[in-house]
Predict the structure.
Amino acid sequence: MLTRIGILGMGGVGGYFGGLLAKAYAESDQIEIVFIARGETQKAIAVSGLKIITDENEFIAFPSIVSNDPQVIGKLDYLICATKTYDIEESLLALEKCITKNTIFLPLYNGVDAPERISTLYPDNEVLQGCVYIISMIESPGIIRKMGSYEKLYFGSDSAPIARLKALQLIFKNARIDSDFVQNIEETVWEKFVFISALASATSYLNQNIGEIINSNSNRIVYVELLNEITMLAAVKGLNLPNDIVMQAILKLEKTPKYATSSMHRDVLAGRKFELASLTEFVVNEGLKYEMEMPTYKKVLDKLSEKLES
């Protein structure tokens, strides 16, 4: 029986993991990988494939289908979602004809509110929780560059059929994707969110890359203040995160290439729309809900809101 997997969003995350899947199952008669792309990205992949460049090597992968037309895409068994968070509703509603009652969603967004938003759109479907650790980006249409050696994909669910989860885990394993199917997935997702939210907010607010934040006492203080605020929020929400999560985040940052920055900061620099709502404003709003002061996050939100509106 053919298993059809759609990859929605061919950016750094969707492009990289989608490329690994397409490469692994190019000759398979059991797994079909569909890239959901439009514009120049769709054209580039259709003609030349998707090129993945890492620090060690590069390869080109061709999906079974690359399209943004639901009739061409067809019905999907799994849909891996990796667009920007501000595109969730529009991009998923456009694929309504591809979704059956058995379609399982795996969101790999930079935020923690995606599963709830997807379930609002498709209340009868299983929506997993997931997150990734990776530094990768679009170099040009149809070309993804991954920096550094660290990559990890986590996913899980409290309600999805175990057989479907294990089948997805095996699909990832055979594609050499380093993934873990974890029980306490909400806490794993929040652990990533603590890291990425503070980093995205700090790099975008300070307009500095990772090395510039680490090597400046004043910049580092801003980053640590953000970490402390979001960690306190997680604790008040009842999430059981590691006691040393702030130190873990700092150590993780120190192992990251110094010239790298967050995807939100790259979008700010490029003058594009950026994920302020999911990565910064969400934290401020959750703080209000729990009657918590989030002064550093609020300061970042106020400054970046002006930039988003200008």
